[in-house]
Structures are given as C-alpha cells and as structure tokens.
UniProtKB/TrEMBL annotation:
Source taxon at top rank: Bacteria
Name of the protein: Short-chain dehydrogenase
PANTHER family membership: 3-PHENYLPROPIONATE-DIHYDRODIOL_CINNAMIC ACID-DIHYDRODIOL DEHYDROGENASE, DEHYDROGENASE/REDUCTASE (SDR FAMILY) MEMBER 4
Coiled-coil segments: 34-61
Assigned keywords, A-Z: Aromatic hydrocarbons catabolism, Coiled coil, NAD, Oxidoreductase
Organism lineage string: Bacteria, Pseudomonadati, Bacteroidota, Flavobacteriia, Flavobacteriales
Length: 234
C-alpha cells in the first residue's frame, strides 16, 4: 500500500489488537489504538514505537459512545484521516447461566456488542470520507454455542449479525465490512498467560496478517465473514 492509511484499533494494549497494530505499523499504516488503562496504553505505545513512530495510544472505553467519539477525534487530529476501524476490544466470563450475575452479563454485552456499535457510530462519518473498511472481531463462539457460554455466545452471535447487517448498509457508501471469527488465539483472554503451551494456537501476529490480507484485497471483492481457526487443535 503506497498511500498514507490510518487505522483505529480498539483494545490494542495486548493480545489480538496489539498483534494487528504491530503488523499494520510494519506495513506503513499509521495506527491509533485504545485500552482502558493509561499505564497499559503508554506501555503498549512505547513497545509499538519500535515498529513505527506513527502510533498513537488513546485511553478509551468502548462502553462509552462519548469516549469513542473522542478517540476518533484524537486519531483524525493526529493523522489527518481514518481509513480502517478494527472493533476488537472484548472480554469473556464463563459460568453456568444460573450463576452468571447481571453485572457480568451487562459487562459482556456492553463491551463485546454495544461497544462494537459505538465504535462504528463514532467513526462512520470518517469512514464515509475515505471509503474505508470496518472490521469486527467476533469468535467461533459467534456460531457455536457451548456450556458456560451464554453471555459470551450471545454477545458474539450478536456481533456476527450486527456486522453482516451493517455490511449491507455501509457498502452503499463504499465502506467494506468484515466480521472475523477466530478460534483459540494465544493471548491474555480469560486470564490466560501466553506460553509454549499455546504454540498450537493462532498467534496475535497471524490475526495481524489476516487483517492486512483483507485490507489489500481488490476493491471489487468483499470477504464479509471469515472463520479463522488453528490448523491442528491441541
Ligand atoms: N483469545 C482468543 O482465543 C479469542 C478467540 C476469539 C475471539 N477473541 C476476541 O478477540 C478480542 C480480543 O481479545 P484478546 O484475546 O486479544 O484478549 P486480551 O489479551 O484480554 O486483550 C483484550 C484487549 O481489549 C481491551 N479492552 C477490554 N475491555 C475494553 C473496553 N471496555 N474498552 C476498551 N478496551 C477494552 C483490553 O485492554 P484493557 O483491559 O486495559 O482495557 C485489551 O487491550 C475479544 O473481542 C475476544 O472476544 C479472542
């Protein structure tokens, strides 16, 4: 890609969002990313600067539309435009439905589903200007339900439906949309500490390479829903 392009990634302080940021920066794309904790955002920004100086860490919580509007404003102030939005921030709490609290339910729905809408809502006018790209990170849990998964399954099934319906609306504005549904990725998700035992899993960098491949596709084609899994599950 030769033109100057700018991405905003939610939840980029670690895991998948960090991996996507790294690959985009290595490929000449300017990156703004968010997280809720200032210390984590500053640490990730320092680490990402080794790949490119064109990186901006922003403290933002996707559960707040106002906060996402500010994040988009900072991104455009810093880099002058916004081409790619990757709605990635999310969390999972896994418990039997009779034990899941209302607070835990709301935390997942507000972050994983409403947050994805807020990030789009805050950025859509900028994406119209650049005829950009909107990518969401759902999960294979957005197609397959499992024990202890009610809140997480509901949020991720929701992201698949939301992104596909948004795709139909947004393509009228020449904005492309893709929902990615990864299997197990070696991250800090659900309290995991990535180690050698995770070597069979998708790595965060693999997610970055997938996003880069999607962004590079010919404008006439649109991979609207992608299931992405480890070749050999443990
Ligand atoms: N790892 C997997 O196996 C897997 C598989 C399929 C799908 N996914 C999905 O991939 C996405 C990324 O997860 P991950 O595996 O990279 O997990 P992770 O290592 O725990 O990273 C999650 C990121 O999201 C941020 N975040 C959480 N809540 C946020 C909020 N309200 N506002 C802004 N940022 C927030 C976190 O930063 P702070 O906590 O500091 O805010 C962190 O940067 C999630 O949507 C997850 O559901 C993961």
């Amino acid at each position: 890609m030769s033109d100057h392009k700018v991405a905003y990634i939610t939840g980029g302080t670690k895991g998948i969002g960090f991996g996507i940021a790294k690959v985009l920066l290595e490929n000449g794309i300017s990156v703004a990313f968010s997280g809720r904790k200032r210390d984590d955002v500053e640490k990730a920004e320092r680490e990402l600067k080794q790949y490119s100086e064109n990186v901006l860490g922003i403290v933002s919580d996707v559960r707040s539309l106002e906060s996402e509007e500010e994040a988009v404003k900072y991104t455009v102030e810093k880099f002058g435009r916004l081409d790619f939005v990757i709605a990635n921030a999310g969390l999972g709490i896994f418990k039997p439905v009779d034990e899941l609290t209302a607070e835990e339910w709301n935390d997942m729905i507000d972050t994983n589903l409403t947050g994805v809408f807020y990030t789009l809502k805050a950025s859509v006018e900028e994406l119209k200007k650049t005829e950009g790209y909107y990518i969401t990170v759902s999960s294979l849990a957005g197609a397959n339900f499992f024990e202890n998964g009610t809140g997480y399954n509901a949020s991720k099934f929701g992201v698949v439906g939301f992104t596909q319906a948004a795709m139909i609306d947004l393509r009228k504005h020449n904005i492309k949309s893709t929902v990615i549904m990864p299997g197990s990725v070696a991250t800090n998700f659900n309290g995991n500490v990535p180690s050698e035992k995770d070597s069979w899993k998708i790595q965060p960098e693999d997610m970055g390479n997938l996003v880069l491949d999607i962004l590079k596709m010919n404008p006439r084609v649109l991979p609207s829903k992608i299931e992405f899994r480890a070749t050999k599950p443990a």
